Amino acid sequence: MGSTENNIRLKVIAAVKADGRLLSDVARQYGLSSKTVYLWVRESEQAPKQREAALLTEIAHLQQKIRLLNNELNAAHGC
C-alpha cells in the first residue's frame, strides 16, 4: 500500500471514528464505496487484537526456546 493510500485510509478512519461522521458521507467525500470505508474501519478495530495475539504467540515461542537453550547449557556444563 502506498503512502498516499495509507494517508487517505487514516483520514477516512478518523472521519468515521473520531469525528462520528456517517460511513456513506465519508465514502462520498473521498470517492470510495461505503463497503470500502466499512472494511477499513473494521480492520482498524481488529488490527490491535491481531497484533496482540501474534505477540503472545511469539513470546511463548521465545520462552520455549530459552528453556531449551538453558537445558543445553546446563547439560554442557554437567549441571
Number of helices: 3
Name the overall outline.
Answer: rod-shaped
| SS strand fraction | under 5%
Report the C-alpha radius of gyration, rounded: 22 Å
Order of helices and strands: HHH
Largest sheet: none
Number of strands: 0
Helix content: over 70%
Distance N terminus to C terminus? 53 Å
Broad structural category = mainly alpha
Low-confidence stretches: none
What is the residue-averaged pLDDT? 90
What is this structure, in a nutshell?
The protein is an all-alpha fold. The chain is built from 3 helices and no strands.
Descriptive terms for the model:
single chain; 79 residues; mainly alpha; rod-shaped
What does this structure look like?
By secondary structure, the protein is an all-alpha fold. Helices cover 84% and strands 0% of the residues. The protein is built from three helices and no strands. Helix 1 (3-17) packs antiparallel against helix 2. It starts with a helix and ends with a helix. 8% of the residues are buried. The model has no long low-confidence stretch (mean pLDDT 90).
